[in-house]
Amino acid sequence: MKFLMLKIITLFFAISASASESVLLAKNDHIESRILKERRFYSVYLPPSYSQNTDKTYPVVYLLDGDSTHLKAVAGLVEALSTERLEQQIQQAIIVAIPNSQNAIRERDFTPTNVDWTFKGKLLEKFENSGNAVNYSAFFEKELIPHINKNYRTSNKRVLIGESFGGLFASYVLLTNHKLFTDYLIIDATYIWDNNYLNRYLKNNQLENKEMAGNVYFTFANNATAFGDIGKTNYQWGLAFADKLRNHPSKKLTVKQRYFENETHGTVAALSWYYGLRKLLQQSVVIEN
């Protein structure tokens, strides 16, 4: 599978290089957030047909941990898989990459509770500031998404991609405000946060009995060797969380998952993007305004 990914990305950049000597990948911009009380930067990648098809709207992929490396990889993959050369396996899409705050650690915005990170009574890491997920979610809902919708031709289809702590945040949004995004790619999330927070939240708020909606694609890595009991427990709690959502009675909630036995927490992202986006952006699913 790694060889397949390498071929796709190599092919894409070879085609791009032969088509033009200078390739502008994305536009860098920022927004002054009143909710977060800081300037937040973001980058916008536009699909190849955007300037020609002026009446067409496009799904938007919101990429957490959206530094230049992640943006290049995801944009290259989305553009390659949407070309005729690769049989247009997915829709073309706008990508909005949001790097982490320049003023705080990434865990500040991705975590739903302000606690020390512990496992079975042992301190894993002590954060100066955490538990800002409620405000970060509001930033997307009230500031960033409306701003993107105002300035670009967006459809109603919105995909949120989160990995590790970003996957924790994506799961939190799914539980607390599932209509904010239509699709979720949750990559090896930090399920051990706050003693199984996600499963506890789902149970304590009786979400099994409430309406939920969205297309969710979970991916899991093999972390048992690298992280021992922590890795095993994170996987077990993640499976339990995905199972509860997959067995949810709501017909508007669909859940798929994939386990990568030969990948670890640090290597699982690329294959997760490939398989997850092939599923969530498949050509048969088109949502227009």
Written overview of the protein:
- GO terms for molecular function: hydrolase activity.
- Belongs to the esterase D family.
- The chain has helices at about 1-20, 70-80, 105-110, 135-150, 165-175, 195-205, 225-245, 270-280; strands at about 25-35, 40-45, 60-65, 95, 115-120, 120-125, 155-165, 185, 215-220, 255-260.
- With about 290 residues, the chain is α/β, with parallel strands linked by helices.
- It has one domain (about 1-280): Rossmann fold.
- Strands 1-2-4-3-7-8-9-10 form an eight-stranded mixed β-sheet, sandwiched between helices. A two-stranded antiparallel ribbon has the order 5-6.
- Strand 1 (about 25-35) and strand 2 form a beta hairpin.
- Helix 1 packs across helix 2 (about 70-80).
- Residues about 15-20 and about 285-289 have low confidence and may be disordered.
Order of helices and strands: HEEEHEHEEHEHEHEHEH
CATH superfamily: Alpha/Beta hydrolase fold, catalytic domain
Instruction: Output the CATH topology.
Output: Rossmann fold
Instruction: Please write the CATH class name.
Output: Alpha Beta
Low-confidence stretches: 14-22, 285-289
Major sheet attributes: 8 strands, mixed
Strand content: 15-25%
Q: How many beta-strand runs?
A: 10
Signal peptide: 1-19
Pfam family, one: Esterase
Protein name: Alpha/beta hydrolase-fold protein
Organism: Pseudoalteromonas marina
